[in-house]
Structure formats: C-alpha cells, structure tokens
Amino acid sequence: MVQIKTPEQIAKMREAGLVVAAIHAATREAAVPGATTKDLDEVARKVIADHGAKSNFLGYGGFPATICTSVNEVVVHGIPSDDVVLKDGDIISIDCGAIIDGWHGDAAYTAFVGSGHAPELIELSRVTEESMWAGIAAMKNGNRLVDISRAIESYIRRQPRPATGEHSLGKFGIIEDYGGHGIGTEMHMDPHLLNYVARKRGKGPKLVPGFCLAIEPMVSLGTPRTEVLEDDWTVITTDGTWSSHWEHSVALTEQGPLVLTAPDGGKAKLAELGVTAAPDPLA
Questions:
Q1: d(CA 203, CA 93)
Q2: Which secondary-structure segment (H or E) carries 263?
Q3: Alpha-carbon Rg of the chain, whole angstroms?
Q4: Are 161 and 124 in contact (CB under 8 A)?
Q5: How far apart are CA 64 and CA 33, in angstroms?
Q6: How far apart are alpha carbons 152 and 79 in whole angstroms?
Q7: Which helix (H) or strand (E) holds 136?
Q8: What are phi and psi of 77, to 5 degrees?
C-alpha cells in the first residue's frame, strides 16, 4: 500500500526536509581534509538538536550514527568513525534524515574533499546528481513509477563514458541492489524505486497527488555490483571503483513536484528542465 499524504502532511514533511537541508549545508562545510567522519556526525547531531528534530538514522536497524558517511569506494551506509580521516582528493557521500512531528525527510549528496580531483570523479558526481533531477522531473501526475526509473537510467546511459584513469574502468555502473523508496510516517516505505527499468517488474503504481518518494541514484565508475562488509552496514563496490550517491525527498502535489529537502523546493533546477515546482507550503 502506498501512503498518500494530505497537503497538511506534506507541509510537515517539508519542515523535516528543511532540517535535512540544514544538515547538508553544515556537513558540506565541515567535510575538509583532516576531519573525521565522526566529526561530521557530531555536526549533524547538533543541527538536529538545534531544530528540535529527531534522527531517523540513529538506531534504525541498529545503525549507530545520525548520518551515513560513504567515502570513495563505499557506496552507501558507511558508519562514521574516528578512524576514517578525510584526505585531499577524497569524495564522500553523506546521507541523512530528520523527523518532525512523526514525518520524515531523507536526502544525500556527494562532496569533494579538498582539491585535485580527477575529471572522471567530477563527472561521476555530476551524472549521478543530474540523473536524480531527471527522475524528479518525471514525477508527474498520471505517470507511472517506472517512468522515474526510466528517466534516471536513460540519463545515465546517454552520458559519454568518462576518461579512463586510476579510479575508472571507463563506464558508469548503475548500482543494482539499492534504490529509492516511499517516505512519510516511516523513512522507508512502499514502493521500492529502482534506478533502472526491470522488465519483469511492470509499470508500478500510477503517480497521483500525495505520492512521496525518496529518489536516489547510486552510480559507480565501474561495476553495478556491491558487497556488504563485516560490520553488516558498509556497502562497497566489488571492484573497488569509486561511487556517488545523490538523493532528495519529493512530494507530488496538484501543482507539480515539491522537492522537500531542497532549500528552494527544487524551483530553480526544475525550471531548467522545463518543469514548474509546486509552491512551498511554508513560504
């Protein structure tokens, strides 16, 4: 069953989404050479507390932190640690969420630590982020869930392969084992959203106002396959190539999509794609 939200409930999710946006801004500033991933978790904890919110990551399935810090070849679910010190040239994907009055927000981004990043790493993050926005733009009344998957996959497949370098096998890999999801009174809800079109899964449910999704492509510079480390959380690429993760929580309204976790509700980026974002209920 897909949970359909009222405009009032979407407004609450927007409140949670803005807390997530604040976490992103603070952790992005703190993701510098010499910082530990535990340092970034402490920054996120303070933002959550300052906003009177709750963490939806801490304790989820036993997860021990408020954010996921996934460095280089780690795709998702990296656990913050004093032992992981960020270095010049690293990339890090930070995934985090917040709860306001029982309603959830969830989003992720990839940041560049320091400078001197290989061109293929810059292109990897760009392609992953842009594929997310292509999926968001496909979140239209009357479309099907598969239309979002198709938009994400099609964007990635159309991109020229990055130059082969020390981080690259010369192709993009769309991670197969993880994808987006419904969101609302829980962080992970039906439906599961693939970042590619699986022919045997059908078209999925029709998108209607009140539909809320976390849209989150994960892309590597090599294989689409992953493995989980012994901590039962950390997911890495099986070939060691580096990866990127971008995510926004999005609500479909009568007026179009509202990007709950973007400071401007997605207005500027969607306009570039010819889509009008829904009005911000908190404006």
A1: 30
A2: none
A3: 18
A4: no
A5: 24
A6: 27
A7: helix 119-137
A8: 70, 25
Task: Give the amino acid at 170.
Answer: G
pLDDT at 168: 66
Contact 43, 30 (CB under 8 A): yes
- What residue ranges in 133-197 does DSSP mark as E strands? 173-174, 180-182, 189-193
Asked if the peptide bond before residue 191 counts as cis, ω within 30 degrees of 0, the response is yes
Q: What is the pLDDT of residues 197-226, one digit of tens each?
A: 987 777 899 999 999 999 999 999 999 999
Which residues, in sequence order, are CB contacts of 109 under 8 Å at separation 6+? 24, 28, 93, 94, 129, 245, 246, 247
- 260 - beta bridge partners? none
Cα atoms found within 13 Å of the Cα of residue 41, Cβ hemisphere only: 22
pTM given for the model: 0.96
**In angstroms, rounded to a whole number, what is the distance separating the alpha carbons of residues 66 and 210?**
27
Contacts of 229 (CB under 8 A, 6+ apart): 235, 236
What per-residue string of b and e applies to 88-104 under the rule 16 or more CB within 10 Å gives b? ebbbbbbbbbbbbeebb
User: Closest Cα partner for 247 from 224, 214, 213?
Assistant: 214
Amino acid of residue 260: L
- Can you list the positions of beta strands (E) in 134-268? 173-174, 180-182, 189-193, 212-215, 218-220, 226-228, 235-237, 243-245, 248-253, 256-259
**What end-to-end distance do the CA atoms of the chain give, in Å?**
31
In tens, the pLDDT along 92-139 reads 999 999 999 999 999 999 999 999 899 999 999 999 999 999 999 999
